[in-house]
Amino acid sequence: MPDDSVFLALAHPVRRRLLQLLAGGPRTAGDLAEQFDLSRPAVAEHLSVLRRAELVRDVPVGRQRRYHLTAEPLAEVEDWLHPFEHLWRARLRSLADVAEEDT
User: What are the chain's domains?
Assistant: First the structure.
């Protein structure tokens, strides 16, 4: 089971968005901060939470740090969620059936 820090990190929408951005490849903190209406220190704190949860790692490159997505904890979340998948798959199928009836 994934560590609670992973779930706590994933609970915040800014941190989920940071992970989405990093899924496209490594980025600097400054580049990531430009994607939000937040101060750089606020984005740095979110990155720190993600780093402590081991969802990202940072690599020094000159005077900057590049942040990289670390997929292993996300795979653990997926493994943990798998037994519950049937619950939302059935609901999505029902929703799709209703949507198709209306067309």
Answer: 4-101 (1.10.10.10)
Q: Which amino acid is at 101?
A: E
Three-state secondary structure call for residue 61: strand
**Alpha-carbon span 86 to 92, nearest angstrom:** 10
The predicted-structure confidence for 45-63, as pLDDT tens digits, reads as follows 999 999 999 999 999 989 9
C-beta pairs of 84-87 under 8 Å, 24+ apart in sequence: none
Tens of pLDDT, residue by residue over 9-43, are: 999 999 999 999 999 999 999 999 999 999 999 99
Burial class, 50, CB count within 10 angstroms (exposed 0-12 / middle 13-18 / buried 19+): buried
Residues shown for the chain: 103
Which token pair is 92? 């999505």
Partners of 82 in the beta sheet?
none
Mark residue 57 as left, alpha or beta (left: phi above 0; alpha: psi -120 to 50; beta: remaining).
beta
